[in-house]
Amino acid sequence: MAKDAATRRPQLDLLRTPGLGNILRWRWGRLVFQGPLLVLALLMVYDGLTGPRLAAENLATVLAWVHYRGLVILALLLVGNLFCMSCPFTLPRTVARRLSGRGRRWPRALAGKWLAIALLLFFFWLYEAADLWARPWLTAWVIVAYFAAAFVLEAAFAESPFCKYLCPLGSFNFVAATVSPFQIQARETSVCRTCVGKECVNGSPIVLGCGTELFVPQVRSNLDCVFCLDCARACPHDNVALAARPPLAELVAETWPRRWDISLLALVFAFASLGNAFGMVPPVYALELALARWLPFAGEGLILLLIFVTINLVLPVVLGVMAAVLSRRLAGSQTSLREAFARFTPAVAPLAFAIWFAHYGFHFATGALTAIPAFENFLATSGLAIHPHWTLSALAPTAWLLPLQILAVLAGLLASLYVAGERVRLDTTAARPLWAALPWVLLLAAIAVAAILIFTQPMEMRGTAGFSS
Ligand code: SF4
Ligand code: SF4
What we know:
Bound molecules: iron/sulfur cluster
Order of helices and strands: HHHHHHHHHHEHHHEHHHHHHHHH
Radius of gyration: 23 Å
Strand content: under 5%
Number of helices: 22
Mean pLDDT: 90
Number of strands: 2
Number of domains: 1
Distance between the termini: 49 Å
């Protein structure tokens, strides 16, 4: 299905829409999106370091932990990886790439998604253990560290290692974007076949080629694509499209990589959707207290680490491998364990996306308007006679949210079951192909039930004036 979509001329191409398409293809088009986010990031750092200490009143915490997460997941659902496209951290990176040119390669031993998985897990743990959501000052330093890391790594290495192999936000966006409706593709593959310079990946004297080294006619996935559109600007034949694709096309395609690291990243993305939400409901405090009684020497950080490593790493590894082993046996498949593992891990992506969407959507719906008083307060402390409207907070009545969350999870489960069903036919060695899906269907159902149980618990409304941090 994905192959067909990639070789057909796209029906809907965002790069060909009047106005927007012209901006996107313009040489400085990315700056139009990065500029405002850079200004916001600098404001967040300034307010985080010098502004109010209460999370709900500070731009750093409100914009990072309420707005960024809510808007990023909405953008991923409607279009694709728009945050990476507009990423302010990569602005100094562009200068850095000019410095590194086609310089030193990222070590092969560190290539792949293993470091990205480790940093993603570290980021989730840090968020809880250091109460990032409640600490504007620390949030500001995380932003500064991001700018520094992106610049240093891009200056030292070719191949955009920061985006491709390290960035936790990017890794999250890559997996989430596998369900997004748009993808980079060649408009006419025949044009690419006769193209001499392959500027989309090699670049030209004036425009950089693809930083993550994707070759447009071979792109079948949103994994590793930061939507920077450098390929479109570099292509001398105007042959790159940001094209609409059939729903879930990437996840049912045979081209999904049969790699341990990418499969594990997808599973970690799924289990972390539970772990992250679980960290904000009362049962986690009961569990922390129980663990503190059993392990009196352990501090809160270590106890949280135990809980997070168990939910976000041990469970995906153990349950994923068990599902793959059982799947192979039940189906009488001749494939390797790695292939059996990779066969069904794409099926978890829609459900995981739905859980993240339901969770981040909850915080956005309960706290979106807090940005207004936070901005008003910022202007007031700068000397303007403005009185912040501290009562502004929720975007929607809280009574609506649980039904909507459950609806989102069920929709995600249905989409995941569809993907699992489609992927059954990819194993041509299986004697009983339908049976291969059974362990994964059970795992998907268990994840969905766990998510609904978590959402029925009272959740902390972090970053809003209603929650005292
Ligand atoms: S530069 Fe353009 S025409 Fe050449 S291979 Fe890349 S996308 Fe195809
Ligand atoms: S294929 Fe490469 S250059 Fe094109 S948008 Fe994706 S990351 Fe950017």
